[in-house]
Amino acid sequence: MSTARDRFTYLDANASEPIRPQALAAMTDAAEAVGNPASVHRAGRAARALLETAREDLATIFGVQAENCIFTSGGTEANVLAITGQGQGRRIMVGATEHDAVRQAAPGQTIPVTADGVVDGAALERLLAVPGAAPALVCVMLANNETGVISPVREIADLCHAHGALLHVDAVQAAGRIGFDMAGLGADSIALSGHKFGGPKGAGALLLAGERFRALTPLLAGGGQEQGRRGGTPALPAIAGMVAAARAALAAQSVQAARLGVLRDRIERAATPLGAVVCGAAAPRLANTTCLLLPGRRAQTQLIALDMAGYGVSAGSACSSGKVARSHVLDAMGLGEGAGCAIRVSLPWSVTEADVDGFIAAYAAMVARLPARPGVVA
Amino acid sequence: MSGTDLIYLDYQATTPCDPRVMAEMLPWFTQSFANPHSLDHAAGRAVHEAVEHARAEVAALLGAEAREIVFTSGATEANNLAIKGAVRHLLARGDARRRVITLATEHKCVLESVRDLASEGCEPVILPVRPDGTLDPDVLARALDVPTLLVSIMAANNETGVLQDIAALAPLVRRAGALLHSDLAQAAGKVDVDVRAWDLDLASVSAHKLYGPKGVGALFVRRRPRVRLAPLFSGGGQERGLRSGTLPAPLIIGFGAACRIARAEGAAERARIAGLRDRMLAALRAGCGGVQVHGRMEGRLAGNLNLRFAGVRAMDLLAAVPQLCLSTGSACSSADVVPSYVLTAMGLDGAAAAEGLRLAVGRYTSPADVERAAAILCQAVARCRAQGSVSPHDGQTAQAG
What we know:
By secondary structure, chain A is α/β, with parallel strands linked by helices. Chain A folds into two domains: 4-19 and 253-369, Aspartate Aminotransferase, domain 1 (Alpha-Beta Complex); 21-251, Type I PLP-dependent aspartate aminotransferase-like (Major domain) (Aspartate Aminotransferase, domain 2, 3-Layer(aba) Sandwich).
């Protein structure tokens, strides 16, 4: 790997996908619309038309009413708005492997997951079925950011609704990578983040189920934008880019999933003989994601070695990448000390076979150079 | 504005993104797209460094330190975070004070943030302004007789461009022991802003008001003495826990570039823009008659005119000049039919306020634009007057305010 420093291979799509050309084009086009979408003059109306077209397009893709598509600054804001906006008077229940944006939005009960990382339906039912308790707002992610594990959201939704609970789904990692819509999930709300499916950073959306306009307690009080549910001038170019990215991602979704799945499996087939354990391997997973646990080698050490070899991967979510705390996701899956020894490889839409083969070589070289330290893992 | 016959005179609603800003942002969309919080790899670190560089540029425009800048999705979020965040933190600490003060002419997101705090046990106090739009220091001093948690005063008004004398008002707030927040969304880049000279504890800015991209803003949070905030929302813990969520790195880098350009070119630009504005006013006065400017001309943003043409309802006039982009007030509420609450707070009656027009020139306005816009306006005013578009002196005013 003597030339490693000359090039860098990005395999951290779950932190942020590279922008799609369609998104870039839509964004630069929208940036030409100078007006504020709330202004009534011609420039404002042109911006408004772009904004509302974007809203209708995104709403159509995910099967909601356009008026129930609320644009936000990103996935965190969308998740928090869903929970604080719908959660009053409800018991909040949050999956153990949820993103911190959801876990910290409101104090709530934790729904355990199985060893595969899938929400434990029986445990959820016990939490929901407490006699006389207030109705719940259940928060479950469609696909996990660290392991790619996909939850059986439809079954969870039925369970929730049988107990008068609302279901909020964090679909930030799933959107664009698997096909779904509101009715198929049976959810009451869905959070999206543009830059996780090839749109620009700075735009997200909260989608609400229902045939009629749904009010929501706003997080940001302001000028009455988004029908009073989210104040602030909408980031029109970023929003237009997000919607174009969603369209492009879903147009290529099945082909891409097949392609990425083959490449991901190639990595796993190469890594497991070297001692790696694939976290959540028995569950349905996103095709682009693998979480490789290497007993006895700290994640941080692995990342440094791979970074020096020119490969960008991560341990856990990017938000907490700067921290040393081990993954709460893997902890919840019962991996114990091993939770500190796993790295996430997430293939971007633009990844090539050569990228993957290069990574496999770098991974093997890393394993050879990093002897397992018996003290590190049980 | 490029192309078409449209003349953009609404620089206070939003500004076009400067092409130089666009050019600086683009590589961070296409080539260096990593998550700025992915410090574990080289790509993430490169983006992180660029974000920190932009943070320093934003800080420099405000006279702050880089570590005093918290990035947000815009000024609305920054205003919400400043006002609710600071007050909630103090309340949670057991502070006995309840009063929160702001002005009747503030942006809606400030007024709503202050009013929202009433449901959390606070006492919102909305101060009147003088007919020229400025706050009477004695009025503020009297309001501060009751122990106060926070005062929020905008530096420049979004409808009238009227500047408040923050440097003169700040000592009153300081002496009373309250925190001082200022919404600088309209002022930053347009007047010399200095958070130290103005003795601010908190200050909000927005990129798209100073030729940067939409979707990003910042809150200045003073460090010495340190101002503490309860975050509006938690999550990944970015921005030292004050504002979670992936930072929109390209937008932030564009924001930094816009601040750098404002700092380098602001003074010259202001002189040019004030010249255009004055030329516009002179042309309107020469061509129309019955022109009344709202708020004083000195102590006003260089590009702003807020005025009325006697006897001509603003909505009728706007409908008569489809080739001009101007507004009756704040863009957020410009679809409202009620007259501007900013103008009624300055003592205009409903009928006069319904004649109020906001006109703001900016970076891409040419002298020819000004001449043409003035001619178009004067013709339309004459037409409206001939058709008897006289403001009804009944109705509508009850909704204002």
